[in-house]
Amino acid sequence: MGMLIQLAPMILILVVFYAMILIPERKRKKKYETMISELKVRDEVMTRGGIIGKITNINGDDVILESGPDKVRLKFSKNAIANKVSQEDK
User: Fold this and answer.
1) What does each of the 90 residues of the chain score in pLDDT, given as a tens digit?
2) Cβ-Cβ contacts under 8 Å for 41 (sequence gap 6 or more)
């Protein structure tokens, strides 16, 4: 019985850690994976490096972005995309 009482704080810390860290991270990861799977041509996205451009082509795990006034085309992995840029963000 005394051993269980000594372990109770450690168990409580693990439960709180799970609830505060791991559950929100799973939700964030699922939301990101959904966003990546729903990408389509002409979506405006921002890469993890901060480059903003429109998707001109999707080829498997790669996307071609068109960016800047000179319409420069850049090839990125889908994992390099941070998020979609919505009209409200502009």
Assistant:
1) 778 888 999 999 999 988 899 899 999 999 999 999 999 999 999 999 999 999 999 999 999 999 999 999 999 999 999 999 976 665
2) 55, 56, 57, 58
Going edge to edge, which strands form the sheet with 52-59? 72-77, 62-67, 52-59, 44-47, 81-84
Residues 11 and 22 in one domain: yes
Given phi > 0 = left and psi -120 to 50 = alpha, else beta, which region is 75?
A: beta
Q: Do 53 and 65 fall within a single domain?
A: yes
- Both 44 and 73 in one domain: the answer is yes
